Amino acid sequence: MKKHAPLLTLGAVAVLGGALFAVSSATDPASQAVPAASPAAADAAADPAAAAAPAEPAAAGPDPPAVAETVWAGRSSGDEVTVAVAVREGRAVAYVCDGEQVEAWLEGTLSGDQLVLTGPDATLSGSVDPAAAFGSVTVGGVTWPYSAQAVEAPEGLYDGRANVDGVAVRIGWIALDGTVTGGARADGAVVDAPPFDPAAPGATVLDGVPVTVTAVDGSSVGVPS
Fold first, then answer.
1. Is the residue at 146 inside a domain?
2. Domain interval for residue 115
3. Which residues contact 213 (CB under 8 A, 6 or more apart)?
4. pLDDT digits (tens, 9 = 90+) for 81-108
């Protein structure tokens, strides 16, 4: 048995050496495997600005109206015509008349503080705030600058409808500073408006026919059908 002792010793040395090598390899940082980076991670490392790019901002919507619901009434700078504009939640209706031959309904929008309205052979534009409106109005090719102030009932804009002898008549009145200016249209022609008392709209008649009167706001139908 003693003649085999050297072989056992060499075997033990070999086993011990292999164990020491394995321990050394496991603890050597240089020998550790490094996992491959993903393509996205490689791109981010190559371009830090791309990785930090902010998200695209949401598209801005239309400007909200400057006022939710208001009626302004006023006159042109030379007192040629009376003007009233009513708005409600972005919609707008206007009426222009001189009590004689000028008479026009318009409708459009209020976007932010900007008015844009149109009607048959008529346009109106302007800027508004809760107290006042300023701009220009054109009827029949004639343009006037105007200014108007915010008003409350019984001042304001009124729309009258009547049927006289089978003819539909539409009437507009603007009540302002204790006065009323009106106009009417029948069969496409401008005619005189009947007298109107904003304190008693139900008493209005035209040629003996009762007139249906409505206080106008921005949701009213402005342009004659």
1. yes
2. 69-215
3. 158, 159, 160, 196, 201, 202, 204
4. 999 999 999 999 999 999 999 999 999 9
**Alpha-carbon Rg of the chain, whole angstroms?**
42
Rounded distance, CA 99 to CA 149, Å? 20
Report if residue 109 sits inside a domain: yes
H helix and E strand count, the chain: 3, 15
Evaluate whether residue 33 is within a structural domain. no
The DSSP secondary-structure symbol of 81 reads -
CA dihedral 98, 103, 108, 114 (to 10 degrees): -20
Burial 141-174 (b: 16+ CB within 10 A, else e): eeebebebebbeeebbbbbbebeeeeeebbbbbb
Q: Is 50 a member of any domain? A: no
Predicted TM-score (pTM) of the model is: 0.72
pLDDT digits (tens, 9 = 90+) for 55-82: 565 566 667 777 889 999 999 999 999 9
**Count of the separate structural domains present in the chain:** 1
What is the C-alpha separation between 102 and 124, in angstroms, rounded?
A: 14
